[in-house]
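stage 2 :: seqdesign
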């Protein structure tokens, strides 16, 4: 019976990994559409976001079923509870990516991102794809050191976000209030996407070690 239970836990873990991969596809398509104005890319991102929504419902149902199936103990309980927390973070990543795509679709046939700012937003999109890729890898091989490296990738996103805000708030900004508001929101969505990817890493550290990311970091320094 425990073997079957562990197989069910493995299925939940695999579902979480697939959700993260789909989140990466959402943010990649959303970035393409804000840069190029390709409305089909926007719809692709939104459709994939819908897939993530369905996977969230499946993961939540699976986790609740595992809690009710038989009393999980120690690491088993940690896996199920962490699975629920990871589902929430992965869900938010998908939503944030679709927000970016929706912004592009709303402005079609115009562009959300003025031409001079496109290279910066493209770098933010690339950073988002990279951190989602790392998070997906961590979910497959829950290594605390790899999970902790997500913080460094988030630092890059923070720097890019600050650069975007500085550009928008510059007195010489000449692309209008609407573009400034759109870019402020889009930048925030990218930043929060990366923050939630970091949360995936932190939850994975807890799953692998039974300790919080902060405690694990302290122990490594001692």
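stage 2 :: out
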């Amino acid at each position: 019976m425990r073997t079957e239970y562990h197989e069910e836990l493995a299925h939940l873990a695999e579902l979480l990994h697939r959700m993260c991969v789909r989140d990466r596809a959402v943010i990649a398509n959303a970035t393409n559409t804000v840069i190029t104005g390709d409305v089909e890319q926007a719809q692709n991102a939104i459709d994939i976001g819908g897939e993530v929504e369905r996977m969230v419902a499946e993961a939540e149902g699976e986790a609740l079923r595992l809690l009710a199936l038989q009393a999980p103990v120690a690491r088993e309980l940690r896996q199920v509870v962490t699975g629920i927390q990871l589902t929430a973070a992965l869900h938010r990543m998908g939503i944030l990516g679709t927000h970016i795509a929706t912004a592009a679709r709303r402005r079609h046939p115009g562009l959300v991102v003025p031409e001079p700012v496109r290279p910066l937003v493209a770098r933010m999109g690339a950073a988002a794809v990279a951190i989602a890729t790392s998070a997906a890898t961590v979910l497959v091989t829950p290594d605390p050191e790899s999970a902790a490296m997500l913080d460094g990738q988030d630092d890059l996103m923070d720097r890019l976000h600050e650069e975007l805000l500085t550009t928008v708030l510059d007195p010489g900004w000449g692309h209008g209030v609407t573009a400034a508001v759109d870019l402020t929101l889009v930048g925030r969505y990218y930043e929060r996407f990366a923050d939630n990817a970091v949360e995936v890493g932190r939850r994975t550290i807890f799953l692998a070690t039974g300790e919080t990311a902060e405690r694990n970091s302290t122990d490594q320094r001692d």
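stage 3 :: structure notes
- The CA atoms of residues 128 and 194 lie 6 Å apart.
- The chain has eight helices and no strands.
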